[in-house]
Amino acid sequence: xxxxxxxxxxxxxxxxxxxxxxxxxxxxxxxxxxxxxxxxxxxxxxxxxxxxxxxxxxxxxxxxxxxxxxxxxxxxxxxxxxxxxxxxxxxxxxxxxxxxxxxxxxxxxxxxxxxxxxxxxxxxxxxxxxxxxxxxxxxxxxxxxxxxxxxxxxxxxxxxxxxxxxxxxxxxxxxxxxxxxxxxxxxxxxxxxxxxxxxxxxxxxxxxxxxxxxxxxxxxxxxxxxxxxxxxxxxxxxxxxxxxxxxxxxxxxxxxxxxxxxxxxxxxxxxxxxxxxxxxxxxxxxxxxxxxxxxxxxxxxxxxxxxxxxxxxxxxxxxxxxxxxxxxxxxxxxxxxxxxx
Amino acid sequence: xxxxxxxxxxxxxxxxxxxxxxxxxxxxxxxxxxxxxxxxxxxxxxxxxxxxxxxxxxxxxxxxxxxxxxxxxxxxxxxxxxxxxxxxxxxxxxxxxxxxxxxxxxxxxxxxxxxxxxxxxxxxxxxxxxxxxxxxxxxxxxxxxxxxxxxxxxxxxxxxxxxxxxxxxxxxxxxxxxxxxxxxxxxxxxxxxxxxxxxxxxxxxxxxxxxxxxxxxxxxxxxxxxxxxxxxxxxxxxxxxxxxxxxxxxxxxxxxxxxxxxxxxxxxxxxxxxxxxxxxxxxxxxxxxxxxxxxxxxxxxxxxxxxxxxxxxxxxxxxxxxxxxxxxxxxxxxxxxxxxx
DNA sequence: AATAACAATGCAAACGTTTTCATTTTGTGT
DNA sequence: ACACAAAATGAAAACGTTTGCATTGTTATT
Lengths: 341, 341
Fold this sequence. Notes:
The structure is a homodimer of 341-residue chains. Chain A has 12 helices and 12 strands. In chain A, strand 8 (246-249), helix 11 (252-264) and strand 9 form a beta-alpha-beta unit. Chain A has 341 residues and is of the alpha/beta class. Chain A starts with 8 loop residues before the first helix and ends in a 10-residue tail after the last strand. In chain A, helix 1 packs across helix 2, helix 1 crosses helix 3 and helix 5 packs parallel to helix 12 (298-314). The first copy, chain A, has 3 domains: 9-52, lambda repressor-like DNA-binding domains (434 Repressor (Amino-terminal Domain)); 66-164 and 298-326, Response regulator (Rossmann fold, 3-Layer(aba) Sandwich); 165-296, Rossmann fold, CATH 3.40.50. In chain A, the strands form 3 sheets. Chain A has a 6-stranded parallel beta sheet with strand order 2-1-3-4-5-11, sandwiched between helices. The first copy, chain A, has a 4-stranded parallel beta sheet with strand order 7-6-8-9, sandwiched between helices. The first copy, chain A, has a two-stranded antiparallel sheet with strand order 10-12. Chains A and B meet through helix 4, helix 5, strand 2, helix 6 and helix 10 of A and helix 4, helix 5, strand 2, helix 6 and helix 10 of B. Strand 2 (96-101) of chain A pairs antiparallel with strand 2 of chain B, so a sheet runs across the interface. Chain A binds a DNA duplex (30 and 30 nucleotides) through residues 8-10, 18-22, 24-25, 28, 32-34, 37, 52-62.
């Protein structure tokens, strides 16, 4: 006699004196079973310690109750707001979130997508719009509801919700030029496989080109996403004779590194040098000096993405694509000012 | 004729001219099928676009290939290192991670645990040791391999790996007293449902008691986890006539807020006031002044937790409990110094 | 009170795999 | 070539649910 490990739906049914079908209905369509019966089943569930098996219901072609999220990394503040908001929104709709990280490796991303599909996620959240052709075509082939977060464009292959990063770049560039700077350096992350950064940079450069402002090659710095690296990479530039009067950073964390580099060398910000970021991370408003940046409202992005995904999954429109642009906004604070002369 | 939506294992089998059983084996025990057959199956998989159904295999009492993680929130830097390391480690062992957040609500945590068990996760990661009795007993009843991260104690009901937060509190308190401070304020998060903070605070207070140092009630501040709130809550204290010479913060983010509060009022750190944190978050070393804190090595915690969970799941020891303490370390930096006299 | 309409329940067939056991194929030693 | 062991494969039963259809129980209508 093999003692079964855990109660299944049949044990519950026996205990309650009904058929398994009724127990199942009691979970999935409670209105279809008599309150009295429902109560008896509830008691049986408790006394047996039954926990339903989602796998068994997922197999039925029915809902798995999961949604997949693929992000480059969980390790930094950029995505945490976003993910939290996304997760909460989907939780509210009854989904559990499967998360996978690829470390900015798009081949890996494709593998993770496959893995999530094996788990029969009902929808997929991605970051950005830069993905392998295989990734896009797999999504299309399986007709998996998907939403790309963080970047908006009007011509995407899948639904997207995000800030217009290009506009964010333009906006911060205009601000810097508006307040009179002509000698500006740029500190950006590597744009390889990172369309968010690429669009921002493009926006900045287009404005500069339009205004005939030239950024010398060696004022064009690259740094990984960290205060430490940003600080290190800026120090030589700021120590040189021929300094810029302003620095635009690809995001707020980098901007923070830049500010520290300047302060460590004894340059007051913004008196001697202006620094601007992009992103308006929590904390940016409370730095000293508070950081001029572009607000991207990542939690709004995450929340909206969650809502859209829910709609795509539960809605009736097949293969519908929805695109939402979340407005960007200049947060003018203390870290930028007219150039020192 | 109903056109089936997606290829299943039978389609693949037909295409390859073998039985479904062989296809299944080809995935799960590749060494048991001839290389030649394997190749034919591979081709068939590709041409049909087959993606295996984990739910169907999970139903077989076999592995679901998922591990659950329950955290208070994804929204802040505290956990991101930890989660990232945990996730990567488990990924390497072939698991996908199901993540759920409860916002420091332990009732919610219990619900999430149930939900994850419905998905038949093979293991569970939790944060901290403060959980409802129901949560513990459900885990024990289902014999689900579990590991609590972030806090170490020698007498836990489930496996744990983490820093000794009590010792961390003692360590930073000793440092502050060692360098000569006698007038110290404490700024901590609410310890309700947050055993990490509770242990740290206990450690600090025990050292103070041993050394007969008294902290007046009103030097005992509470703040949510954010730079903004920390800064705000400290400002009145620092503006008053009767100021402390040092402040110990419950974690580095709060410490950063404290430093900004001081600097905004024109008090140099550490000259006029010393500030210490706990955690050594990425970035803490690069603040100005760099922050004296206790290094907790969260990525080590996450990684170790992942390894332990893998071992608990795949190992042969039933109901084994493993406990690992990750050492803490004083990082003495610029934000603390002898009191100004 | 008889019947129609409807609500509640049960039966049994699916869902897509894995696995045990039996069978067939392949390889080895003579 | 032959016998035999070993390896590869197939057939079919399981896994724990859901659901269409049939059946039974209940209420409303006359």
